[in-house]
Structures are given as C-alpha cells and as structure tokens.
Write a structure and sequence with these properties.
The complex is a heterodimer of chains A (187) and B (416). With 187 residues, chain A is of the alpha+beta class. The termini of chain A are far apart. Chain B is of the alpha/beta class and 416 residues long. Classes of the chains: A alpha+beta (187), B alpha/beta (416). Chains A and B meet through helix 3, helix 5, helix 6 and strand 4 of A and strand 3, strand 5, strand 9 and helix 14 of B.
Amino acid sequence: MNQLLKKYPEEINRILSRYPIDRKQAAVMPLLHLAQGEAGFVSRTALQEIAEITGVSATEVASVVGFYTLFHDAPEGKIRMQVCTDLACDLRGAREYLTGLCDQLGVKPGETTEDGLITIEEVKCLAACDKAPLFQAQLGDEVEYHENQTAARTVDWLRSMSAAINGTPLKTVKQEEVNPDEGGSHE
Amino acid sequence: MSELILLRHRDIAGLNQLKTYIANGGFETWKKVVTSRKPEEVLNDVKASGLRGRGGAGFPTGVKWSFLPNNIWPHYVVANSDESEPGTFKDRELLEFNPYQFIEGLMLTSYAVQANDAYIYFRGEFSQIAKKFEERLAELTAKGYLGDALFGTKYSLRIHTHLGAGAYICGEETALLESIEGRLGQPRLRPPFPAVAGLFDKPTVINNVETLANIPYIMEKGVDAFRKNGTEKSPGTKIFSLSGRVKKPGNYELPLGTTFRELIYKYGEGIINDAQIKAIMPAGASSTLITATDAVLDTPMDYEATTALGSPLGSASVMILDETTNISHVINETTHFFSHESCGKCTPCREGTFWMRHISDRIESGKGKKEDIDLLKSVAGQMQNKCFCALGEFSTMAVVSGIQHFRADFEARLES
C-alpha cells in the first residue's frame, strides 16, 4: 500500500492537477517536498512511492534527491541551520560568525550536535546579502530566515528552540548546561 | 530618489494585502485589458516600451514574446523566481512586499501570448513565500481574477507554483524547465529555443520577477510614461542590489543610467570606515572585477555602458570590494561557489570549476607557488567559449580579471 498516497490523497491530487495529465514526472519535486515535510528526510520507501505515483523509476527519483541540496536522504538534526558564507555575506563577516557559532556549539560545519537538535551547514547564496550574517533554519518543511545575526544572538534563539523542542537546556561548549531561567549569563 | 514603480510598497503600507492592492487601483488594468484589448496590443505596447529582461541577459521583453509561434498550442508562461546569484536580493523583496504587482504582470504576459496556464518557479529557499503565494492565488481565483471565462470573456488563466530545492543552475531558463518537468536541473541544448519548444515541449515565455512587475505600469500609464526613466536603449527604472563593503547595503530602485558613484556614495553612503574602494562586481559572482577608477565610478549603469567596462550589468547585483579585501580571497569564494553549483553536464565546467577551486585553495592556504597563479588563469582561459551554458563561462570572469588587475594580491598569498 502506498502510504504517501493513503495519507495525502487530496494534496497529491492537487499536485498532479497542476501539470498536463501525461506529464506526471513534473510532480516528482512537489511530492519529494511533501515526503520530506512528513519525515524530515526522504526515505527509501518514500522514493519508491513517489516513483509509483509518477510512473518514473525509483532511480530517477533518487537522482533528483541527490542533485538538489535541500533534499536529504538521511535524518539529521531537528533544526538544520544553513549559514550563507558566499562572497557578499563573507564581506560582512559571515565566516567569522559561522566559526564563532560552531565553536560555541562544539561542532564543525556539516555536523550535528550530540543531542541531535542542530545540524549546521554552510550553504550558497540565500538572497539576503544586505542582511548578513544570516542563516536559514529548516524545520521539517518550514524554512525561516534569521538575518543580521551575531553568534550570541543565534545562541539565544537556539536556547529557546532547545527548550521548546527537546525540553532541555542547550548544550554549549563554553557554558555547560546553562539554564536560561538562572539569570542570563550570556548578556 | 526617483518615483518608485517597483518598490512602491515602501510608500504604500500593506501593499502585500489584496484589499490594499485593489484599493490602490490593482487589477483594474488586468480587467480592462482582458475585456477591451487584443493580445497583440499588449505585446506591441511592451515592445514599444523597450523594456529589457531584468534577470540578467537584458533581452527586449516584447521581442522575446513575439517569438512564440501561433500554430503550436498550448503556450506557457513561466516566471523565474529562482533568484540565486550571490549579491542579488531584489526579487525576494518584490515577492514578499509587492507580490500582486508581479502577479498582475504575469497575468498580462499570459494574456499577451494567450497562455492558459502559467507557472511560478520559486527557488527552494523561498518555500515560505511559495506557500503564501498558494494562498494568494487561491484567493484571486475565488474573487474571479483568475480561473475560467474571466470577466465574462472566453479567456481562462490558471497560475501554479513550483518549488525548487536548492540549485543555482535552475536560474538558467532551460534548466529551470527541466526542473519543473521533474528532472535534474541541467540546461538543454538550443535550438530549439523555449519560445518554440519550452515547457512540456510547447512554446514558452520565461521572464524574471522584476521584468514582470514592470508590465502593469506600462499597460496602465503607457509607453511614454515608462520611457521617461532611464536611457534610450535601457529605458525604465531598475532595482540595484547593493552589497559588500558599503555602509548602507540594500535594494535601490533608480533609473537605468544612474552612475556607480551615485549608487555607492549617495545611496550606499560610501565605504565602511571610509576606506578606499577597490573594485566593483556589477553582476554578482558572475562579474568581471572592474577596478574602481574615477572614470568607472562616473559610468552610467545601463546595459551598454556597463558591458563596455567589460562586465555585463546582469541583474544589477552590485558588489563592492574595498582596500581591505584581498582579491585572491574573493576568487576563492567565487570558485567555491561555481564548483559547488556546476551541474556536471559538460566537462569544461565540471572539471574546470573543480580545478580552479583546488588551485585557488592552494594559493589561499599559503602553499601556492608562483606558477600556480598562471596555472589558475590558464585553466579559466581554457574553459572560455567551451562551456555548455553561461554558468561555466561566468565562473571564469572574476578569475581572469582578478589575476589580470590584482596579481599582487595573489603573490602576497604565496609560499614565502
């Protein structure tokens, strides 16, 4: 049984209706977004199901996942933080910002924090060059921009996200287990 | 600053709300055109306006539309909202704050070429914007601005969204079409051109967001009003995305033909810490590096004059480098960008961007030898005029001009 089709029959019909009836392959990317929104990544089962719905081979669907950087084939941090370090952002200090942030979280770009909360990635232009340093946060199918950042400002946001998502304080390298209620030592 | 046509939302609060847009005359032109003007009249007006594509190539918009054959149907219109050139952030502002003007432009364009289905291709990073657009399009359909038999005529129009997933190459129009069709975003061989065999092999117009946002103004106020701004060959206003080492980066809508000096020193308020300006990249990462001499600063920013400096105006993403910027570092950034974004289809680009990045990395890490500078330049030179699409060609521009004009910056990085 095709679980994706079973769970989202209306949504899938709506997606297919956007394209000519003999061009179902066009639905591959919207369906991948749908599957990724559900699980945070595209599983092998989802690949197979999308191949079935669109009538293309699972290999072709997998190649699409591999080609586009926002599709993921493995689960990673609950929050994917993507920091732009392209030239325009770099000219406004994005690289120093990324290094500072990674140092505090004790990870390198591309890695996930031990508690599985955050994956930090270095990405290409996010079309907000006048508001660098910035990152975008991918949470399931949601993407939000955080502009004009400093490492301290971002860590503050991560503290609140850690409390909201994991119900535990954020672990940082410099300040182990700081409880935000215990008097904002980061200020 | 001159009259704001595209960034009108800065003068009118809430213009991204449908009722505010309508209260300010929104969609009146749309209704008038569908009910009382012929498609070829719209095409002729846009041709006469001299509007040129704002996505980078600067090709006359009306002429592009006129290439669609009238014996192959259906026709499609695709809005290119894949803005991803490093240094470009103008379409995002339009999509967020003045979305209906863009949508109305897309509608008018669809009517001009008699397309009944249009697509908006959003880059994957704009997923929240795309979601909002789905709501907006549903509301417009419910209110009778989109859908079947519009305003009692025989004309029907549906607009669909399609979300990318992170690939710079999809800004190239044939790669974008591949991406809509559910494949890897790799460019197509031309001919056939999209105007003849584009989306789903049918005649297709592909226009940039900013280009489309100009259409309602041309159709409402007329060709002469549009031509009042800008120059004879580059009429109209343009959004300049100013970034890099300036005090006040941002989007500035100015008449085409405004000088670099005015943009950088008047609107951008000059260089950070009042440092000396060093070079300008007028078309983002795809630019040639232009040494910022007085003559360059006094050059008008239009399609011809900028090209005469050795770099296309592109989408007018003007990136500023100052005396604190080492050009070898700049090249390291651009080579990393292009090797990451090369789609892998053609060998000169796939291999060339890879090796340029490696040689640039070696120089930047202090392990480079003198001959590496010439090797880097030679790899770039070997790629030129051999790549399948513009991405590969553009990847060489900053490398060649950077070494040509700023060799000392590279030498300073070499193994001592």
